[in-house]
Design goal:
By secondary structure, this protein is of the alpha/beta class. It is built from 20 helices and 18 strands. About 7% of the residues have low confidence. The structure holds ligand LZDS7PUF and potassium ion (K).
């Protein structure tokens, strides 16, 4: 797990570092600008040479001069200050650089003003009004240093119009365009929520602009992994196949940010309210309870738990069978499918390795659950609303660790409070966007409103509120899956940037996820650990399988993922 920060947390760290006397704001800005230029040269090694010929393939630009040319768009705050540093360093590296400033140079904050002056001594600064399509198209690279973590309100039209064009540039699939590098955060995107504050101004048919590369400082920001910030429109990224890149450059304040297990966490230092802490489930598995996934040599099947996966009726059992297969592969000792009589034949012919028991109504289910060895239940995939309304209360009253998915959630759309009253701390709800809106319509509406102020209401906020209301863990699915516990503990399971897994968007993939989590519950994981580990493994499986993935492949590739983890 990796710590990710809100804009306020990052500001607090920066301030503490400056106030302690260990670094000046100006030095931090210099390191930030240097970080951007280093990241550019890492991403496009040809740019280091400062002069053409244009790299082949791909063609990054239209070159009509010897030197590479950068357009640097600077805003009125410290993000703009970083832009002036980048301009100077690129020029030192032999580039032609054109700088544009939004706003009044006299109003720049002190460190940005110093760097403005340093640049003024070596180059011109023009107003935003002078920017044209021709200028932007004639560059090898555009640097977006307009706004970073300080964005508070909708963008003025003048900036919106430039970003509108940049957006078309970045998103064009028909032409090779000069890449865009965002300093800290793509301008107009709120650093906490990943949502555009300026929605109406810039969004076009192809969506918000996606930089080829975003370079952020010290730690990634929460918004980098949420909502629009993770949309994947760019065809002009560092590597087209991989999609947009996010690079975190150190600026010397990292000792103040929790980086490794055992260190004090940022939240302990700056926010006594531990609930504000947010983890990122990224490439690193550090912090996940993976050792617990190994099976000790002396164990037998009952020492790894017994999961019950309830199925729907005839013709509707596929989803639950996928979940059951996931539960078995993730290591539950036994998995039993609870099947209504009309689906027995269908299930019996397709369940190698699984067991089956007859579960028609509430009485039969209560009887089944008298077996205390059944320690985890999955209910919802392919279940049907009627069956869910009858059986979910029985499952919940038996207080087993339980995953409620799909129909087990939607069936309570008219009376979510009824469901919340019966949930307990060992439950996990796994809604996708539509199911979330059925159970938490007010939170979904708030999330759907176009934000007019930053920090904007985010998927993290909504999931935390939902978990507190439901009194159990909520895993809000999507390409930006957010997992929250009632006490506010929260993580984002990222499937973006170097962990991009677009093939996961396939029918049945959510059923397998519910099965993974149920299997982990059966193995004794706590609800939050099971949700986090299940979601993380789910993405790892998709990455391990790659293109062509269908849901059935997810459980089958899990052994390979386990092997690579050294289990
Ligand atoms: N955190 C670090 O360790 C470092 C951060 N650096 C860089 O600094 C920015 C954050 O700088 P900050 O000055 O706080 O914020 P911004 O540059 O993003 O923007 C603030 C200014 O913009 C005005 N503003 C905000 N929204 C709008 C808008 N919609 N339209 C017009 N103007 C807007 C705001 O004005 P106010 O009236 O709201 O005060 C500010 O003037 C961070 O992202 C990093 O890039 C350091 O350089 C390195 C260390
Ligand atoms: K920016």
């Amino acid at each position: 797990m990796t710590e990710i920060l809100t804009a306020a947390q990052m500001r607090a760290i920066e301030l503490a570092a400056i106030e302690s006397g260990e670094v000046t704001g100006l030095e931090l800005m210099e390191r930030a600008g240097r970080g951007v230029v280093d990241a550019i040269f890492d991403a496009w090694p040809d740019f280091k040479t400062a002069r053409g010929p244009a790299p082949e393939p791909p063609k990054y630009f239209w070159q009509d001069e010897d030197a590479y040319k950068a357009i640097v768009l600077c805003g009125p705050g410290n993000n703009g200050g970083d832009g002036f540093v980048v301009a100077r360093l690129l020029r030192d590296a032999g580039w032609v650089v054109e700088v544009f400033l939004y706003g009044d140079a006299g109003q720049l904050p002190p460190d940005a003003k110093t760097n403005y002056q340093r640049w003024s001594e070596i180059g011109a600064i023009r107003a935003f009004a002078d920017i044209s399509e021709e200028i932007l198209n004639g560059a090898s690279l555009t640097i977006d240093a307009i706004f970073g973590t300080g964005l508070t309100r909708p963008l003025p039209d003048e900036i919106g119009n430039v970003l509108q064009f940049v957006s078309v540039q970045a998103n064009s699939r028909s032409k090779v365009r000069p890449p865009i590098v965002a300093v800290d955060v793509p301008s107009g995107i709120d650093a906490d929520s990943g949502r555009p504050i300026s929605h109406s101004v810039i969004e076009n048919d192809e969506g918000y602009y996606t930089p080829a590369l975003t370079v952020t400082f010290g730690a990634a920001k929460v918004g980098h992994f949420l909502d629009t910030c993770t949309s994947d429109y760019s065809c002009n990224s560092v590597s087209d196949r991989r999609g947009p890149s996010l690079v975190v450059k150190p600026i010397g304040v990292e000792h103040r940010i929790e980086v490794a297990a055992g260190n004090s966490r940022i939240v302990d230092l700056f926010e006594p309210d531990k609930a504000r802490h947010i983890d990122l489930l990224g490439r690193s598995s550090v912090g996940l309870n993976l050792l617990f996934l190994s099976k000790d040599r002396g164990g037998h099947k009952f020492s790894h738990g017994h999961a019950l996966v309830l199925t729907g009726g005839f013709g509707k059992t596929g989803a639950a069978r996928l979940a059951a297969r996931g539960a078995l592969r993730v290591g539950a000792g036994l998995v039993t499918l609870g099947v209504p009589p009309n689906a027995q034949m269908e299930v019996a012919s397709q369940i190698a390795g699984l067991m089956m028991t007859r579960v028609q109504g509430g009485e039969a289910l209560a009887e089944t659950l008298t077996d205390a060895r059944l320690n985890a239940v999955c209910v919802g995939p392919g279940f049907g609303h009627e069956r869910a309304r009858a059986l979910v209360p029985v499952v919940l009253s038996n207080k087993r660790a339980t995953v409620l998915d799909a129909d087990a959630l939607s069936a309570f759309a008219n009376a979510p409070e009824e469901l919340f009253e019966t949930l307990h701390e060992n439950c996990i709800l796994t809604p996708h966007k539509g199911e979330f809106a059925r159970l938490f319509p007010d939170l979904a509406n708030r999330l759907a409103e176009v934000p007019t102020r930053g920090p904007a209401y985010s998927k993290v906020d909504a999931t935390r509120e939902a978990a507190a209301r439901a009194g159990c863990v909520v895993l809000f699915k999507g390409p930006d899956t957010v997992i929250a516990a009632p006490d506010g503990k929260c993580s984002i399971n990222s499937a973006h940037y170097e962990r991009s897994a677009p093939w996961l968007a396939t029918a049945g993939s959510g059923d397998v996820l519910a099965g993974f989590i149920t299997g982990l519950l059966a193995r004794g994981f706590s609800a939050m650990d099971a949700a986090e580990t299940g979601a993380w493994l789910h993405v790892e499986c998709a990455i391990a399988f790659g293109p062509g993935l269908i849901a059935e492949d997810l459980p089958e590739i899990l052994p390979k993922v386990f092997c690579e983890l050294g289990l």
